[in-house]
Design a protein that fits this description.
This protein is of the alpha/beta class and about 375 residues long. The chain has 16 helices and eleven strands. The protein folds into three domains: about 140 residues, Rossmann fold (3-Layer(aba) Sandwich); about 140 residues, no CATH class; about 70 residues, Rna Polymerase Sigma Factor, Chain: A (Orthogonal Bundle). Bound molecules: nicotinamide-adenine-dinucleotide (NAD) and magnesium ion. The site of magnesium ion has 4 residues, from helix 7.
């Protein structure tokens, strides 16, 4: 079980819930990071007394340094500061709860420093799966999934012989616009897209859930984590979010993990593996739930899922490009610069236009494919770089 953690992205939805788990089980917190949100970061720092805090935005870091001047806590700034927190001495596990591909370098920094990784930042594996997996293998560190579906699969796999796995079945809530057809999505607003039926999460992943891009990213994430190809990953719409995912074995038994929809369960499992500790999460009363429903996803309307599967089959930098296009498009949608349907169109166009099929999967190639795709889309629609 983990003794001490560094929490990257501690002010976000996963970060705050990670600190809840740390508080409950007396896990030491040695480093915290955020992009801005220094008021919350200051509160967290005063409560957990880490060795260091790092703030991506340098002006915000300078302000926090003044606010924490009466403490011994070291305040670091910029990307360098976040990387320093990722290899902070004293942490045995780094929780990466940063949103977007900005989490890739911190992930590699942590792994190369020999830290175990509790990974919520799925974009790390989507954009850079090959380099991350090879660093994890080389360093012999553990990679624990935090994403609820992947944690569910990881939990189901405990005690299961490796050869027995036939396929994984990712469940999906369907997001804010389940059941709608393309024509009905033309005029949907940011507020409507941000209303998730079952989970309260950061803005980007909530939009990703509404487009089904999130499930597409999760298919790619599952493929790296569990070493299964696209055709062995099913996606099943399950509106109630009670079954968090399943595995099917050679004998056609299906094993599922169920629970109240609360991210503190997968976060806690990643930090306490292989132990099972008490949790404040509400007990699941299946007699109250009464009915669980399942359906196939509509990948004509929600084409991002199909585009991600295609990117996974093509391999190489295709997932990196699809992810970068999505990050830029979601940013533009949240800024009111493009419509909801344009997110899917931009992801599809970027993947179709990509011509770097023969590029090797080096970190440099990953970062430049990400940067070029993102900047092209942001410039086209007047987004901030
Ligand atoms: P969030 O937006 O609530 O929080 C993101 C955190 O990252 C914040 O602390 C923010 O300061 C920091 N951050 C943002 N941009 C950064 C940058 N450029 N550099 C460094 N730090 C930066 O996001 P979230 O919902 O907590 O999601 C975090 C990650 O976890 C995402 O990859 C998401 O897909 C994944 N995830 C989230 C949930 C959930 O329930 N929220 C569930 C499963 C997976
Ligand atoms: Mg998930």
């Amino acid at each position: 079980m983990t003794q001490a953690i560094a929490v990257l992205g501690s002010t976000g939805s996963i970060g705050v819930q990670t600190l809840d788990v740390a508080r409950m089980h007396n896990i030491k917190v040695v480093a915290l990071t955020a992009q801005r949100s220094i008021r919350l970061l200051e509160q967290q720092a005063r409560e957990f007394q880490p060795v260091m805090v790092a703030v991506g935005d340098k002006d915000a870091a300078a302000e926090l340094k003044i606010a924490l001047a009466d403490t011994d806590i070291q305040v670091l700034a910029g990307q360098e500061g976040i990387l320093e927190a990722a290899h902070c001495q004293g942490a045995d596990t780094v929780v990466n709860a940063i949103v977007g591909v900005a989490g890739l370098l911190p992930t590699l920094e942590a792994v190369n420093a020999g830290k175990n990784l509790a990974l919520a930042n799925k974009e790390t594996l989507v954009a850079g799966g090959e380099v991350v997996k090879s660093a994890v293998r080389q360093k012999g560190v553990a990679l624990y999934p935090v994403d609820s579906e992947h944690s569910a699969i990881f939990q189901c796999l405990q005690g299961c012989p490796e050869q027995a796995l036939e396929k994984v079945i990712l469940t999906a809530s369907g997001g804010s616009f389940y059941g709608k057809r393309r024509e009905e999505l033309e005029k949907v607003t940011v507020q409507q897209a941000l209303k998730h039926p079952n989970w309260s999460m950061g803005a980007k992943i909530t939009i990703d859930s509404a487009t089904l891009m999130n499930k597409g990213l999760e298919v790619i994430e599952a493929s790296w984590l569990f070493e299964v190809p696209d055709e062995k990953i099913d996606v099943l719409i399950h509106r109630e979010s009670i079954i968090h995912s399943m595995i099917q074995l050679k004998d056609h038994s299906i094993i599922a993990q169920l629970g109240t929809a609360d991210m503190r369960i997968p976060i806690q499992y990643a930090l306490t593996y292989p132990e099972r500790l008490a949790s404040p999460v509400k007990e699941l009363d299946l007699s109250q739930i009464a009915t669980l429903t399942f359906a196939k996803p509509d990948t004509d309307t929600f084409a991002c899922l199909r585009i991600c599967r295609e990117a996974l089959r093509r391999g190489g930098l295709y997932p990196t490009v699809a992810n970068a296009a999505n990050e830029a498009a979601v940013q533009l949608f949240l800024e009111g610069k493009i419509s909801f349907l344009q997110i899917t169109d931009l992801v599809g166009e970027a993947a179709a236009a990509f011509s770097g099929a023969s590029c090797s999967m080096t970190l440099d190639n990953i970062l430049s494919a990400d940067r070029e795709t993102r900047q092209r889309i942001l410039h086209q629609y007047g987004g901030d770089d």
